[in-house]
Amino acid sequence: MKGLFKSKPRTPVEMVQHLHELLVFVLGNTETREKKRAEKIGELDKLLLDIRTVLFGDGQIEPNAEACAQVTKEFFQKDTFRLLINCLPSLDSGARQNATHVIANLQRQRVNSKVIASEYLENNLDIMDILVPGYEDSDIAWTYGAILRECIRHQNVARYVLESDHMKKFFGYLQNPNFDIASDVQATFKVEYHFELLTRHKSTVAEFLSANYDWEYNSQLLQSESYITRRHAVKLLGDMLLDRSNSAVMVRYVTSLDHMRIMMNLLR
């Protein structure tokens, strides 16, 4: 008889609404019964997988554009995006992975031809104040790093990070003794291929470099005791200075005796 009364599948909007309720429950942490809390966490894990399936499809069926738009709109309208980021430390590794995929997909979804993630992040830039310091927590660093890279795709977010105190912190994170975390920070910077933060948004970066010419980049990275850090730093420096939009900064750099001294020491 029980099988005759199966609950009706949730619509995409109802999925996000229920996710919102579960996230509020987990963050509230008012439930003292461990079994009840574990049940809610398990329900949250499954729901994240269901939402991921809506956005990506299941391998056999392509995602429905209307369903994706509904999920995206509901996510940003009710601030579920922020709740999910705040809740990540409480989730297990599988749920974090699903959440990261969901967040990455939402960054690209269009609703009425608009990427509403960009507008949402512009009005909620303080979310970067959660993501960037995430590198200080080895348990959550990789998850927050992956999400941060997706957010930096939006120019308004890149500008905020460049102009904030977080920029200086990055150079400390790059020298983290934990190789995996340092590598993830380097991935965020795209040091090995294309420096995401300092080469994707060229006009923004040109303004930043001109206004912050005397930053601590050389002293912290080019003179690091770590060979790997120095090698990545040289690659990054080349990517920046050889870009046409940074020609004025390049001229100032190559005419500096102090910078020449650093380069000569690196050649030894």
Automatic annotation (TrEMBL):
GO molecular function: protein serine/threonine kinase activator activity
Transmembrane segments: none
Superkingdom to which the source organism belongs: Eukaryota
One BP term from GO: intracellular signal transduction
Matches recorded under Pfam families: Mo25
Gene3D superfamilies referenced in this protein's UniProt entry, alphabetically: Leucine-rich Repeat Variant (1.25.10.10)
Record PANTHER family: CALCIUM-BINDING PROTEIN 39-RELATED, MO25-LIKE PROTEIN
UniProt similarity note: Belongs to the Mo25 family.
The protein, known as: MO25-like protein
Organism: Gossypium gossypioides (Mexican cotton)
